[in-house]
Design goal:
Rossmann fold; homodimer; DNA-binding; 434 Repressor (Amino-terminal Domain); alpha/beta; 3 domains; six-stranded mixed β-sheet
Chain lengths: 357, 357
DNA sequence: TCAAGTCATGGTAACGGTATCATGTGCGTG
DNA sequence: CACGCACATGATACCGTTACCATGACTTGA
């Protein structure tokens, strides 16, 4: 929209202060504010009215192309800066979408390291391209007036709690949430297809001839619960029943521990689906420690496809999700809602990246 | 400042539309816009003037405490929303700081995974607390009008190139940059003390009795160059000269490759300082592959203290930096500059976390 | 008793854009 | 020649807030 590509172009003349050229009705005075020129100033300079300047800068077809060019140059030359607040006030919207990131204290943030950043990148890219600003906040800062003024809201964070969702919902602003969509949800949810992720791994194991698979992870996270569901359902179709090994921590240690525990209990298993790459890497170490081999004796698949996993030895197979794509989709949904269109919840496909394990 | 803590408080009555209660001079008409009440509306409701409402909501000492309370309740009850655009227009500032993140295409982004997120958290926390909004953009989006309107700028990204810095500097807005400060820099730079990081590792190696240390990394990044400088200088004080093993990639593979290369060339070494944890972990694997042990034969220290490193086996020693603290500092510096105070470049201390390697 | 000094409140004019409804020109056509 | 129409531009009135400078009531002290 009113995107003036001025970065990098040096203004050739300094704006000399306002008071002189201003049609001040009361003050003839000399207090020279060091503010830039306004549309009214450009208008006077060009011998036109400010509305024409507004139209020229806004690419309106109503102005003569030559006039537009002339005004453009003038704006350039005098270092004109468009005032967004004024436009937003007049237009009665903020052209802003608030992104609220729920940062957990820090404990299992590990799991989400690569995640919000990619998401944020996609969101920022798409929203900026549409002429919207991205207002970043944490949950604590969400009470601030600027957030309330946003035209739209994006909620980020694992297992965003329902109460938080409702709280923000009350602001009466278009809202889109990242995560696992529960069936009864009234709001729009975008997330990667965790169920599919589980199913894909199940099929993979089945094709490899694995018949005694184990799932490692913490299914109390809604997203991970879905992975488990998909995994169990797909295996069930082949009359296979996987074992659930519950682990709360998403660290390599935890994965190693899980395997040792299985081994100690004499459990017979030939495949492991870990719901995080870190867990998977730990599990592989555990498997090797108890004298078995990957992928010879046991197949292992992780989740998230961390860059690290690819250069792990043996190179880790993992379920890949495109965070950036997710961010873009989130952004598109809010924009649609803001425009008054409807938007449905959507899940993004995931893909299994098969490497050595 | 004008922070109205309204999230979560449900407004008890719906605002019934404007036209009726409005002192419209021309239109007596019925077009009922579904916009919320304004200060003027509250004023009429309270039998006061809008300026008094403004003062009450703004905690001005000029209004009677009882009046203030009354207005507060009224605002609450009618779901009043403060209009930031109007205030910003009037006050001639945006109360906004733009954060420009330079996202590399994706190649060695690995290195920076945990980094911008922590930084961003700190920035957001501090800025929000001060009543400022955080406007997030990538470099591509930085030409947008909203960025130009920001009261301040924070530039994030490894080795932010000088040209970019100058480009943004021309906007004439207070700016703070994250990274390694070069001596001749005119702008304010905040970064962690890479030189100290190198020195600390050097001392650690020396105390352990290591005399043939190797540095692995890519010193063409300014920040990493500093680490190398500190490392070399501190070792130099003990008349030790480290070997530089240049590696462009920051992956484990690259680290493993480096060690194999050293081994193949018959280089004698007893300590490795890798300028990234991933590199360090790869190096450890390489060391083990060529039949030597960590930390028995070779000591290894990484950089960044990734959560992963702590649960690596053997647990990785690493140089730790507090990203969040860095973000807070960045925020404080811009705020100071915005207030017209001066601010100096500053480096944050780092600490060596000694684990098993 | 009156000047001076609080305290609480109000009138008015900005801040810098854009929507709405004119206005004025030139041109083609019946 | 008058009419309608497209085109280019303008006058005016807001959008919702706060700064500036009153104004009136009531207190205080000489």
């Amino acid at each position: 929209m009113a995107t003036l590509d001025q970065v990098g172009h040096e203004s050739e003349s300094q704006w000399e202060g306002r008071a002189l050229s201003r049609t001040s009705k009361k003050q003839g005075g000399g207090k020279l504010l060091s503010a830039g020129p306004t549309m009214a100033d450009l208008a006077r300079l060009a011998g036109l009215s400010k509305i024409t300047v507004s139209r020229a800068l806004g690419d309106s077809p109503l102005v003569n192309p030559e006039t537009r060019e002339r005004i453009r140059e003038l704006a350039q030359k005098h270092g004109y800066k468009f005032n967004i607040s004024a436009r937003n006030l007049r237009l009665r919207h903020s052209h802003t979408v608030a992104v609220i990131v729920e940062m957990k204290p820090s404990s299992d943030r590990t799991m989400f390291d690569p995640y919000p950043l990619g998401l944020l990148g996609g969101i920022s890219q798409e929203l900026t391209a549409a002429g919207y600003s991205v207002l970043l906040t944490t949950r604590q800062g969400a009470a601030v007036a600027a957030v309330q003024a946003a035209d739209g809201l994006i909620l980020l964070g694992q297992g965003v709690h329902q109460d938080a969702v409702h709280r923000f919902h009350k602001l009466g602003v278009p809202m889109v949430v990242w995560g696992a969509g529960l069936k009864g949800d009234s709001h729009v949810v975008v997330g990667s297809d965790n169920r599919l992720g589980g199913a894909v791994v199940a099929e993979y194991f089945f094709r490899l001839g694995r018949r005694r698979p184990v799932f490692i992870g913490n299914p109390s996270h809604p997203e991970i619960h879905e992975r488990l569901n998909g995994f169990v359902a797909a295996l069930g179709a082949h009359a296979i029943k996987p074992l659930l090994m519950r682990r709360d921590e998403f660290t390599p240690d935890s994965g190693t521990g899980a395997v040792h525990s299985l081994h100690a209990r004499g459990v017979d298993f030939d495949a492991i689906f870990a719901c995080s790459d870190l867990l998977a890497m730990g599990a592989i170490r555990g498997i090797q420690e108890v004298g078995r081999s990957v992928p010879g004796d046991v197949s292992v698949v992780g989740y998230d496809d961390m860059p690290l996993g690819a250069s792990f030895l043996p190179a880790l197979s993992s379920v890949h999700q495109d965070w950036q794509e997710g961010g873009i989709l989130l952004a598109r949904k809010v924009l649609a809602l803001i425009r008054g269109e409807s938007a449905a919840s959507e899940t993004l496909p995931v893909s299994l990246v098969v490497r050595s394990t």
